[in-house]
Amino acid sequence: MFPLSKILATSLVTWIFALGSLFPCQAWSDQPMPVVISAIQRGDRGETLRLTGTVFSRRYSKLSAQMAGLVRQLVPEMGAYIKQGDLVCRIDDTFAELDVKDARFLRQRAMAALAEAKRQYDEAVRLSKDKIIAETDIEALQSLVRISESELRRAELHEARTKESLERYQIRAPFDGMVVSKQTEEGEWIDRGGVALTMVELDSVFVEFLVPQTFYLRIPREQAVQITFEAIPNRDFSGPIHGLVALAGEGARSFPVRVELPNLDHAIAPGMSARGVFQTGERGDQSVVLVPADAVVRTPEGRHSVWLVDDVFGKPVLAEERIVDLGARQGNAFVLKAGELDAGDLVIVRGNERLIEGQLVEVMNRLGESGAGR
To answer: Looking at domain 29-46+286-367, does it have CATH number 3.40.50.300?
Structure first.
C-alpha cells in the first residue's frame, strides 16, 4: 500500500501536466506571437457561382452536295485536319465538263460572228463615201453588229453558268477544321442536299453553362471566367463571356451562358465537360465589406471570429478578438453580414490559429490586396 501523501502528490503533478497540455499558450503568453496581417477591403456585393458546362465548337458544319450524282472522290478520313478551300468530295461531273466545253465553243463562235459583222459594217461605211451602197444597207449592217455583240454577251454568260455548275460538283471546306464523321463513301450515290461529311472548327471553342434564373441577370458580361477541365489536368483556362442567351430550356428554368476559349493547340475537344467559376453581382452594385478568408477562425462555440491588431511593425501589440457574422464567399474573402469591422481594419491572417484574448503579437509582414507582402 502506498502512503496517502504520496498518492496525493502524484495526483497533483498529473493535474498540473494536464492543465499545461490544455492551456499551452499560458506558458508563453508573455512572448509575442509572430503574425502576418492584411487589411479588410470593400467591394461589390456578389458571390462565386460554380457551374458545370459542355464544350461546343464555334462552327459545326454538315457539308452537303449541291448536285446529285455518283461520288467519285472523297478525300479526307475521319480525324483529318483540313484547311479552308481544300477539296473534300468530288461528284461525277462528266456531263458538266462537256457543257463547259460546249459553252466555250459557242462563245468562240459568237466572237467570230461579231468580228465578221464589224468587218462588213466598216466596209459598207467606206463604200458609202462613193455612193456605192444605200444608207439602209449600212443601218442593217450596224444592227447586225449590235445583235452579234448581244449574242457574244449571251454566250459569255452561258459559259460562266456552266463553269459555276461544274464547280458545284465539288465540295470544299468552308473553314479550317477537323473531319469528325463521314456520311458517304466513294461509289455511292448522293442526292442534292445530301450530307457527305461533317467537320468542326477547333481553333476556337466555347463552353456552354446553364445558369439558374436567379443568377441570370446578376452575371456581369465584363468578366473573365475561370475554367478547368478534368480531361486536361494542371492547366487553367480563362475566357470572356461570349453571350447570355435569353431563352431557357423547356422546363429547366436555366439560361445558357457561353464562354469563348482560344484553342490553337486543339487540346480542348467538343463534348468535353468543364467547370467554370463565375463572379455574380447584385443589381445596383451595392458595396460590402470583404473579410479575408484566412482571417476567419471558428470558435469552440461554433461562431466565427477575427483578430484585430494595430499595424506596429516589429513591436509587440495586443490582439483583439471580434465575433463576426459572415455571408457568401467571394473569391478569397467572405461578405461581412454583421460585426464591428470596416474597410481598412487590420486582421491577422497568419498565426491566428492559437491566439487567446490579451496575447501579445508581433507583426512580421502585411499582405496587400493581391496577397503580396511588403
So the answer is: no
